[in-house]
Design goal:
Elements lengths: L2 H13 L13 H15 L1 H5 L6 H14 L5 H16 L10 H16 L4 H14 L16 H16 L6 H13 L26 H17 L8 E2 L28 H17 L9 H19 L7 H13 L14 H12 L2 H6 L1 E2 L18 E3 L2 E3 L1 H14 L21 H14 L5 H10 L9 H7 L7 H13 L14 H18 L11
Antiparallel strand pairs: 1-2, 3-4
Helix pairs in contact: 1-11, 2-14, 4-5, 4-6, 4-14, 5-6, 6-7, 6-8, 8-10, 9-10, 10-11, 10-12, 12-14, 16-17, 18-20, 19-20, 19-21
Length: 538
């Protein structure tokens, strides 16, 4: 049975057991109450008094708060970034030690990359160099003083590598391939993983300490590594900037100038192990054990989110999430947190629970375009929409860009609202035609029709063309209450500064327009120092 078909059968069987009243999702009011109470606990004076883990805890809490609020100025985010930055710098010359160093390095990279990969490029490079230096000869990661790999630590390293790869930092292909081969070699015959991996030498051998938590960590790491290598094909992300890092402009100086090694592994190399892992999770649905429950919940959310990449399908309210919400609601204490156990602090457990509830990994991945063929290529789902434009075959979405531009340019935009512009609308793939469409959209930003300006401001963020930034910066001062917000949304997509926001929910004020204009001008001049901004009037 194929990988996708096998997992869909599993999902259908699982979904049938979920009660109708348990249809939850991150924005559900009941889920928001749980998250808000957890956030209140993380901010409480009691929680701030003592840190059980002085490095990992503030970084994890900072990352959690950032994922919930998107606020880089939040005190807990500022604290987490400061600790992460200091720790990353301590990795130089291998000064950082301790049994938690792999977790600390990994979560530091995740926070720094999520906050601002440009600003923290140097620190991210130090983390990546450190991880390369401490990778075991067999490809795993683990305690520095032990030769064995640790499945738990491997999953956090893979998450860090994936996050860095998403923001344009070139992760060495051979490094990821070695880890995937380590995971294949240390898989238990049951489809799970143990604690300290025992190499199978070409065959699966029984592992020690196989648990649901470690099986989730191993399977998630396998899929994450495969996604870094592109074994599931090219993905296209859709939707708002909060859905994750879009395929937009990346500063050239973030990228490794050396050519990356060609990927040797194929999808066929992981399909067998992954099928076996999915079968393990079908047989062992619930958590077992006295410790690491909240740690497992976050691992589960990460694993399931990457399974959605494999299946090219996302569910709003999957069964496993509903069950987790109900269970976490039962376990939340009167303070709003999730209690400490023998091995983990209450703050860490609370952070893990919140990251599960908000579907943090799915947010980082972004919306998956389910209309794409597997691997990201192929004809549209409805081939009746395929048309001929010149000597090229195009689909209805691409054709409609031409129609929309003509309508807007003729000032026939009455009734067109930017919220009704289809999410799948895309510019031409032909470089010459695409360039012309971008130029036409830029000109529409000074149109006398506010609806035309709104649509243009929205679509320019999908061009992946950094040269349109000055036009969008100009649009930040547009008198219309919507155009400046759409223009900044597009600038965030192009720059990858996804958390920058100068406009509140109400109409933009003059001071907000000025602050946004000054910020984005400074950003663009950092890329193009010789550019001269001039005042323009419609």
């Amino acid at each position: 049975m194929g990988l996708l078909r096998a997992w869909l059968v599993i999902c259908l069987c699982w979904t049938a057991s979920v009660p109708a009243w348990g249809q939850y999702y991150p924005d559900h009011p009941d889920v928001q109450k749980l998250v808000n109470a957890g956030m209140k606990f993380l901010r409480s004076a009691e929680n701030q008094r003592v840190l059980q883990y002085p490095i990992g805890e503030p970084i994890l809490v900072g990352y959690t708060v950032l994922k919930v609020t998107g606020d880089l100025e939040d005190p807990l985010v500022v604290r987490g970034l400061r600790v992460a930055q200091q720790f990353a710098n301590s990795l130089e010359n291998r000064r950082a030690r301790g049994e938690k160093v792999m977790y600390e390095a990994s979560i530091a990279a995740v926070l720094l990359a999520s906050a601002d990969a440009n600003k923290y490029r140097e620190e991210l490079g130090k983390v990546l160099y450190f991880l390369q230096a401490v990778q075991k000869p067999h490809g795993g990661f683990g305690y520095l003083d032990k030769p064995t790999g640790d499945t738990s630590q491997v999953q956090y390293v893979m998450l860090a590598l994936w996050t860095m790869d998403q923001v344009g930092i070139a992760v060495p292909v051979e490094m990821v391939e070695r880890t995937i081969n380590y995971l294949r070699a240390t898989m238990d015959p049951s489809g799970g993983w143990g604690y300290q991996g025992k190499l199978g030498n070409g065959r699966l051998v029984p592992q020690d300490g196989v648990t649901k938590s470690l099986a989730t960590a191993g399977a998630g790491s396998l899929i994450i590594g495969a996604d870094i290598l592109g074994l599931f094909g090219k993905r296209r992300r859709l939707g708002e900037e909060d859905d994750g890092v879009p395929p937009a402009f990346v500063r050239v100086d973030l990228l490794d100038k050396q050519n990356r090694k060609r990927v040797e592994l194929t999808k066929a190399d992981i399909e067998g192990p992954l099928n076996l892992a999915l079968q393990y999770h079908q047989r062992n649905r619930g958590f077992t054990g006295a410790y690491w429950y909240y740690y497992w919940r976050y691992s589960q959310e990460r694993f399931e989110s990457f399974v959605e990449i494999v299946n090219n399908r996302q569910e709003k309210s999957p069964a496993w999430y509903n069950e987790g919400v109900i269970d976490l609601a039962r376990k939340q204490n009167d303070k709003g947190g999730w209690g400490a156990d023998v091995l983990t602090s209450e703050a860490v457990n609370t952070a893990f629970a919140i990251l599960f509830l908000i579907r943090s990994t799915q947010k980082a991945i972004g919306k998956i375009d389910e209309g794409l063929a597997f691997g990201g290529y192929g004809l549209p789902q409805d081939v009746s929409n395929v048309k001929l434009m010149g000597n090229r075959i195009v689909n209805e979405a691409e054709m409609s860009v031409q129609n929309l531009l003509e309508m807007l340019e003729k000032q026939e935009a009455a009734g067109i609202e930017v919220s009704l512009v289809p999410e799948h609308l895309q510019l031409s793939e032909d470089p010459q035609q695409r360039k012309q469409q971008v130029a036409r959209l830029s000109r529409l930003l000074i149109s006398g029709d506010y609806l035309a300006r709104r649509v243009a401001a929205r679509l320019l963020g999908r061009t992946d063309d950094i040269s349109v930034a000055p036009d969008l910066i100009y649009a930040l001062t547009d008198p219309d209450p919507v155009v400046p917000k759409l223009a900044e949304e597009s600038l965030r997509l192009l720059s990858r500064k996804l958390l920058v926001r100068h406009f509140s929910s109400g109409p933009p004020t003059d001071s907000q327009r000025s602050e946004a204009e000054a910020f984005w001008k400074a950003w663009y001049l950092g890329l193009q120092p010789d550019y001269v901004f001039i005042d323009r009037t419609p």
